[in-house]
Specification:
- The complex is a heterodimer of chains A (about 120) and B (about 130).
- Chain A has about 120 residues and is α/β, with parallel strands linked by helices.
- Helices cover about 30% and strands about 20% of the residues of chain A.
- The radius of gyration of chain A is 14 Å and the shape is globular.
- Chain B has one domain (about 1-125): DsrEFH-like (Hypothetical Protein Ychn, Chain: A, 3-Layer(aba) Sandwich), CATH 3.40.1260.
- Chain B is globular.
- Classes of the chains: A alpha/beta (about 120), B alpha/beta (about 130).
- The interface of A and B includes residues 5, 34, 114, 116 and 118 of A.
């Protein structure tokens, strides 16, 4: 059985390559049909916010790539509820259907995967 | 135990030194290193052009020497490397750039190599941040 991987993405979409390079690992895993999941945490939750205009920062839209996750077979998508709350965000602000995890559930989530990568 | 090592930090970051010392210790203890994968800012460890003051550690050069001495499978993510100007001869030719700076002992390849390493190892060890 294939070994599973949880990617914890903690970088804002506009703060350098971190968000995009975390997503690239996940999409590559999906392309190989591996059991890969993604947790958005800390500033990483900002990747999910609707109505962004990255072109004003002369950047590509990461959102379009995030929408590709289900197409690559990545359906285990999680977002840290505490990180959302700290930033005044809730489910209605999110452009992607990710399951909101409470802090008490995170340890259980980490334990469900063979490996965890944090970027 | 079989370890896969992922390095996300540049040669001058403490995390990269810790990754190097961990890998040395694992080898010394008889463990197997299935692959060392350099990603993100970690691709700078593949540069042959690092010049460090004589009284400081050249961690990039030490990585390159360790990989060569133990014939380790050292892989640099090609997409992350190209963005950061870390090119081997083949890529410099492909993209018509005037110089190649990646050491020949490290292979430039895709992210599939990271996933393959995860599948082939008992444990993935990630080193990033500070």
């Amino acid at each position: 059985m294939a070994r599973s991987l949880l990617m914890v993405s903690r970088r804002a979409p506009w703060s350098g390559l971190g968000a995009r390079e975390a997503l690239d690992i996940v999409l590559a895993g999906g392309a190989y049909e591996l059991p890969v999941a993604m947790l958005f945490m800390d500033d990483g939750v900002l990747q999910l916010v609707k109505g962004q205009a990255p072109q004003l920062l002369e950047q590509k839209n990461l959102g379009a790539n995030l929408q590709a996750l289900p197409l690559f077979g990545i359906e285990a998508l999680f977002v840290c509820g505490a990180s959302l709350a700290e930033r005044g965000l809730s489910a209605e602000h999110l452009a992607l259907d990710a399951r909101i995890m409470q802090a008490s559930d995170l340890a259980m989530l980490f334990n469900q995967y063979n490996e965890v990568i944090t970027l | 135990m079989k370890f896969a090592i992922a390095v996300f930090s540049p040669p001058y970051a403490p995390a990269t030194r810790r990754a190097l010392r961990f890998t040395e210790a694992a080898l010394a203890a008889g463990h197997e290193i299935v692959r060392v994968f350099f990603y993100g800012e970690g691709v700078h460890n593949a540069s042959a052009n690092l010049v460090v003051p004589q009284d400081e550690q050249n961690i990039g050069a030490q990585w390159q020497a360790l990989i060569q001495a133990h014939a380790l499978d050292g892989v640099v993510c090609i997409a992350a490397a190209l963005r950061r100007g870390v090119l081997n001869t083949e890529e410099a030719t492909r993209w018509a750039r005037p110089a190649a700076n990646a050491v020949a002992t490290l292979e430039l390849s895709g992210l599939g190599q990271l996933h393959e390493a995860v599948q082939g190892a008992d444990r993935l060890m990630c080193f990033g941040g500070d």
